[in-house]
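Technical note accompanying the year-one report. For the benefit of new consortium partners, we illustrate the data format agreed upon in the data management plan: each record pairs a sequence with a C-alpha cell string. No post-processing was applied to the example shown here.
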Amino acid sequence: MFTPIQGPIAALQLHLVPAGRRLDFEIVPGCFAYVYRRQHQQAWQCVARNACSPYFDHTPISRDSQPEYVVCYCDAAGTIKAATSIAAPPATTPQHTA
C-alpha cells in the first residue's frame, strides 16, 4: 500500500482495449515503475512491479466497476520518489433512443 505524494511528475494514459486496459507511462531513469489499481474507492493494490510501458491489465473487471490506476516510481530501496496522476476510464453514458 502507498500514500500518493505531492505533485505528479508524469502523465498516465489509460486506454480501454479488447484485452482489458492498457496503461502508457514514462520510464524514469534510475527508477522502477510500480503499477497500482483500486476499485470502488478501496485500498490500492500493487498489480505490477518494475513494469514496462505499455502495461496491459488483463484482469477481468465487472462492467459497473471503474478501476483507477497510478504509477509510482521507486528507487532501488523501494522508496517512492514520484508518481503519476490517477487515471480512470471515461465514464460511460447510457445510449438514449428517441
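Partners are asked to follow this layout when depositing records. The chain has one domain: 12-83.
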